[in-house]
Specification:
Strand content: under 5%
Number of domains: 1
Helix content: 55-70%
Largest sheet: none
Number of strands: 0
Radius of gyration: 11 Å
Structural class: mainly alpha
Shape: globular
Distance between the termini: 20 Å
Length: about 70
């Protein structure tokens, strides 16, 4: 089970660099996350967040994030 605090951060945290700098993590396109999955996610918290988001999107669980975003 995913920690609810991680889900909260996915709808609040912004991408700190790159093409999507400033984009809220949950708004990153799936193809970008798939690219990271192939390349290797960054170390640390950001990598864990992107990896979690990739799994959420890959498995069609984005409704979880939409519900949290409404809060």
């Amino acid at each position: 089970m995913v920690d609810k605090n991680i889900l909260l951060e996915l709808v609040r945290m912004r991408m700190p660099y790159g093409k999507y700098k400033g984009t809220i993590l949950c708004d990153l396109p799936e193809f970008y996350l798939a690219w990271y999955q192939q390349k290797g996610f960054p170390e640390g918290k950001l990598g864990m967040m992107l990896s979690t988001l990739y799994e959420i999107k890959l498995n069609g669980l984005e409704y979880l994030l939409r519900e949290i975003r409404k809060m």
